[in-house]
Write a structure and sequence with these properties.
The structure holds two protein chains of two kinds. By secondary structure, chain A is an alpha/beta fold. In chain A, 42% of the residues lie in helices and 19% in strands. Chain A contains 13 helices and twelve strands. Chain A has helices at 5-19, 31-34, 36-42, 54-66, 77-83, 85-93, 122-127, 140-152, 198-211, 229-237, 254-265, 285-291, 296-310, and strands at 23-27, 47-49, 70-76, 100-104, 133-135, 157-160, 182-185, 190-194, 216-220, 223-225, 241-249, 269-275. In chain A, helix 8 (140-152) links the parallel strand 5 (133-135) and strand 6 (157-160). Chain A is globular. The termini of chain A are far apart. The mean pLDDT of chain A is 97. Chain B has a single domain, classed as Rossmann fold, CATH 3.40.50. Chain B has helices at 10-30, 36-52, 76-86, 126-140, 158-169, 210-216, 229-241, 277-286, and strands spanning 67-70, 146-151, 175-181, 189-190, 201-202, 220-225, 249-254. In chain B, strand 2 (146-151), helix 5 (158-169) and strand 3 (175-181) form a beta-alpha-beta unit. The chains are: A alpha/beta, B alpha/beta. The interface between A and B is medium-sized, with 31 and 35 residues. The complex binds thiamine diphosphate.
């Protein structure tokens, strides 16, 4: 079990700030949840408490970035993609400001927060913004690499951070490259495409399918934007069916991204697993994963059914 | 109800103790939720639901009812406890708090639970909604009152400051905001060395002259002890009496976060902590219930 992405995020920032005097963390009064609290303890002079005022926080970060600082923002994902979306759109994305959005409590495992806080549209919204880099790390190692890359690279970055830990996907040799699509497993029948921590569940589903004699390849898309469309199209060409899985709405996220690419290049059916045009609710994270078909067992079931239908 | 001497609020005090214990127990059972905010607001909620609000728990959709918006939606479990005690639903249903499919969601969801006038959870939105209710009531010729309970940390949200001048501009005397001023929020700000405060961390903007700010925008301000039932009820009666007028009222209620339990009072970590089994026992002992 890797450490939670939010912990990896905070610990990497603490390390980077030691050598980078321009790195700042701005918090919308959620530091205890996002783990910005750790950064505040390590670098109190580099931590700015902005209060429960996300729109102003985003604007302030734009001003700081224009003065040469590298502001990382700490709040729940929903308050960036919904509450402060106009500030993210006009002040950050349209000006290509060097603002880094630490979007915590992303996906379905948010500790019972429910409908108001569960953000099942963040990828759809952020992906539609020209010039925005949209990243969804699959484990703590990848998360740390993304934080390093984003801090060193000018331009706006949206980093999707889950609350809980999950299985490790990568070792210390991992290097992040924006756009890269990572093949984790080969298989001739079906291609499972995951993003964020959902990829680990796709790998487990592939193991279940192998037991039934079905070859499932797994591809991880940590960089939703930019993305290597050619790599996704090529992987789709090798199989009978493509199945995407994401802790996100099936409208506009990874599933839509993959369907857009595949329909432009290869005639393959794309099944999208995710939240079917509904809102989140308060419930255990594991219950929500099951309810929305995202557990390894549910994915495997869906693949078997879809392959049967393919004939 | 038996007659009590004026100024005796023993029944409300007992209800508030019960409500606080229900909050601790429900959050412990769910394994998630908020404690500090619900406890700081419990006396306000009990006073509202048992003495102030013109409501019919057995007819939650009664059109002429007062409207109540818990703008600090993370304190939902406090509201649910008060509503259950008042008879909106069985107290036993609190055991479903946060469970999949429950009407008692982590933040109030009006599409699930009758009796909720608004859905909240993303801070800062409730006063605007209450403003619309008060405006609508005027246009419908209703003589009800609209009440919005806000957190003091929540006052940092810009939207609150969009609603304040508009309510005054439209002369909504039938709108009352109540601010739960516990001086703390979720993470907040460290205390200065040797700073004395009712919490171990503080609202970074707690020194803002909120009274003067409201007055500058044309509101009438009442300042009370938010744990004094007599004061809460008197202020709310005063606010309702101003309902036909053109000046909205804000009640600034001085409170203590986590109020009512020795180990939660003023401790920021209890904003959203879950009590251990031992802490639940300690809460039962302090709040006067026999061990289960
Ligand atoms: C828009 C928005 N930003 C952040 C949060 C996360 N959050 C929940 S409670 C809280 C602190 C609220 O403080 P306050 O309003 O003072 O309430 P209280 O102290 O009474 O709990 C925060 C920041 C939220 N729910 N909504």
């Amino acid at each position: 079990m890797t450490k939670a992405l939010r912990d990896a995020w905070a610990d990497t920032l603490i390390e980077l700030a030691a050598d980078n005097p321009d790195l700042l963390v701005l918090d919308g009064d959620l530091g205890t949840s996002t783990r910005a609290e750790r950064f505040a303890r390590a670098h109190p002079d580099r931590f700015l408490q902005m209060g429960i005022a996300e729109q102003g926080m985003v604007g302030t970060a734009v001003g700081l970035a224009s003065m040469g600082f590298v502001p990382w923002l700490s709040s729940f994902v929903v308050f960036f993609t919904h509450r402060a979306v106009d500030q993210v759109r006009m002040s950050v994305a349209q000006t290509h400001a060097n603002v880094k959005i630490g979007a915590a409590y992303a996906g379905l495992q948010t500790g019972f927060t429910g409908k108001t806080h569960l953000d099942v549209q963040d990828l759809a919204i952020m992906r539609a913004m020209p010039g925005m880099t949209v990243l969804a790390p699959g484990d703590a190692t990848e998360c740390a690499a993304m934080v390093r890359w984003a801090t060193a690279t000018p331009g706006p970055v949206f980093l999707r951070l889950g609350r809980e830990g999950g299985p490790d996907l990568f070792d210390a040799s991992y290097r992040f490259e924006p756009g890269r699509v990572i093949r984790l497993r080969d298989g001739a029948d079906v291609l499972l495409v995951g993003t964020g921590q959902q990829t680990a569940r796709c790998l487990e589903a592939a193991t279940l399918l192998a037991a039934d004699g079905l070859g499932a390849g797994v591809v991880h898309v940590p960089s939703i934007k930019p993305v290597d469309a050619g790599a996704i199209a090529a992987a789709a060409r090798d199989v009978r069916l493509v199945v995407t899985a994401e802790e996100h709405s099936v409208l506009g996220g990874l599933g839509s991204l993959v369907a857009e690419i595949v329909t432009a290049h290869v005639p393959r059916r794309v099944e999208r697993i995710g939240i079917e045009d509904t809102w989140g609710e308060s419930a255990p994270g594991t219950w929500l994963l099951d309810r929305h078909g995202l557990t390894p067992e549910r994915i495997a079931e869906r693949v078997r059914r879809a392959l049967d239908a393919e004939g | 109800m038996e007659a009590r001497p004026p100024g005796d609020h023993a029944d409300l005090e007992a209800l508030a103790r019960r409500g606080r214990l229900l909050v601790i127990e429900s959050v412990a059972r769910a394994g998630a939720g908020h404690i500090g905010g619900p406890l700081s607001a419990m006396d306000l909620l009990i006073a509202l639901f048992f003495r102030v609000l013109r409501i019919r728990p057995d007819e939650p959709g009664w059109p002429e009812r007062d409207r109540f918006v818990l703008s600090k939606g993370h304190s939902a479990i406090g509201l649910y406890a008060a509503m259950a005690l008042r008879g909106y639903f069985p107290v036993e249903e609190l055991a479903t708090f946060d469970a999949a499919g429950s009407r008692l969601q982590g933040h109030p969801d009006m599409t699930r639970l009758p009796g909720l006038d608004a859905s909240t959870g993303s801070l800062g939105q409730g006063l605007s909604v209450g403003l619309g209710m008060a405006m609508g009531a005027r246009r419908r010729g209703l003589d009800n009152h609209t009440w919005v309970l806000l957190g003091d940390g929540e006052m940092q949200e810009g939207q609150v400051w969009e609603a304040i001048p508009v309510a005054a501009k439209y002369g909504l005397g039938n709108l009352t905001a109540i601010v739960d001023r516990n001086g703390m929020q979720q993470y907040g700000w460290p205390l200065r060395l040797d700073e004395r405060h009712r919490g171990d961390r503080r609202d970074p903007f707690g020194d803002t002259a909120v009274r003067e700010a409201f007055e500058a925008f044309g509101w009438r301000v009442l300042e009370i002890d938010g744990h004094e039932f007599g004061a809460i009820i008197a202020a709310c009666e005063d606010a309702r009496a101003a309902g036909t007028g053109v000046v909205p009222t804000v009640i600034l209620a001085e409170t203590v976060k986590g109020r009512g339990l020795s180990f939660t009072e003023g401790a920021f970590e209890w904003h959203s902590r879950v009590a251990t089994a031992d802490e639940v026992e300690a809460a039962r002992a302090e709040l006067g219930e026999e061990p289960a």
